[in-house]
């Protein structure tokens, strides 16, 4: 399923895009004027102006895109295959936090969820299935090779691509800039047992709904 908002009046589709925005310096002066108007103060030690890149909540923001912070990628690269349930859940949680960077993340994680569900308290961990070991490495590689995700701009055309299977949904959100489409986020989700009984149309609409959220 494809959902697209076409903005025929947008000037973002030409090379003069930046000329239609207030410059950073003008925006800065406006912000400081507002701070003064409401008698607010900022800490000089925490104020950073005209930065080409920033780190925010585990992400690297630069060139209008967000990336996983290098230390997050490094930690994942050095992550050894877990041996106990607690460590498997920790890895799954780590990947879920960065799932927007991975196409079909839910599909890749499903064997790991199924494997964790077979653990029995106070018993020896079950052997790691080949599919689990394989997807563990695929997830690490997918994040290591992840592309930057464009920051969402409500003023430019947006495309939502979704696909639903019997087990879940997958797709992505993209925006058009200078005649090219750039990914905003990859989205995937496994169906609940009830949702698996939905009709094909219902599953497709559920996929679109989840992407719009």
From TrEMBL:
<dbReference type="InterPro" id="IPR051320">
    <property type="entry name" value="Viral_Replic_Matur_Polypro"/>
</dbReference>
<protein>
    <submittedName>
        <fullName>Unnamed protein product</fullName>
    </submittedName>
</protein>
<feature type="region of interest" description="Disordered">
    <location>
        <begin position="1"/>
        <end position="23"/>
    </location>
</feature>
<dbReference type="InterPro" id="IPR043128">
    <property type="entry name" value="Rev_trsase/Diguanyl_cyclase"/>
</dbReference>
<dbReference type="InterPro" id="IPR041577">
    <property type="entry name" value="RT_RNaseH_2"/>
</dbReference>
<dbReference type="Pfam" id="PF17919">
    <property type="entry name" value="RT_RNaseH_2"/>
</dbReference>
<dbReference type="InterPro" id="IPR043502">
    <property type="entry name" value="DNA/RNA_pol_sf"/>
</dbReference>
<feature type="domain" description="Reverse transcriptase/retrotransposon-derived protein RNase H-like">
    <location>
        <begin position="134"/>
        <end position="212"/>
    </location>
</feature>
<feature type="compositionally biased region" description="Low complexity">
    <location>
        <begin position="1"/>
        <end position="22"/>
    </location>
</feature>
């Amino acid at each position: 399923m494809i959902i697209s908002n076409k903005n025929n009046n947008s000037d973002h589709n030409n090379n003069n895009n930046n000329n239609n925005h207030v410059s950073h310096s003008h925006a800065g002066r406006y912000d400081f004027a507002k701070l003064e108007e409401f008698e607010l103060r900022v800490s000089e030690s925490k104020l950073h102006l005209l930065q080409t890149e920033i780190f925010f909540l585990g992400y690297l923001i630069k060139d209008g895109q967000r990336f996983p912070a290098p230390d997050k990628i490094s930690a994942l690269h050095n992550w050894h295959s877990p041996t106990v349930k607690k460590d498997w859940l920790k890895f799954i949680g780590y990947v879920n936090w960065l799932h927007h960077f991975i196409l079909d993340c839910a599909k890749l994680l499903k064997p790991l969820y199924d494997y964790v569900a077979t653990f029995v308290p106070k018993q020896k961990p079950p052997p790691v299935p080949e599919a689990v070991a394989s997807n563990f490495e695929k997830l690490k590689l997918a994040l290591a090779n992840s592309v930057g995700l464009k920051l969402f701009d409500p003023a430019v055309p947006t495309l939502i691509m979704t696909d639903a299977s019997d087990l879940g949904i997958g797709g992505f959100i993209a925006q058009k800039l200078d005649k090219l489409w750039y990914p905003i986020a990859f989205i995937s989700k496994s169906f609940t047992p009830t949702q698996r009984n939905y009709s094909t149309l219902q599953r497709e609409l559920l996929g679109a709904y989840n992407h719009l959220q």
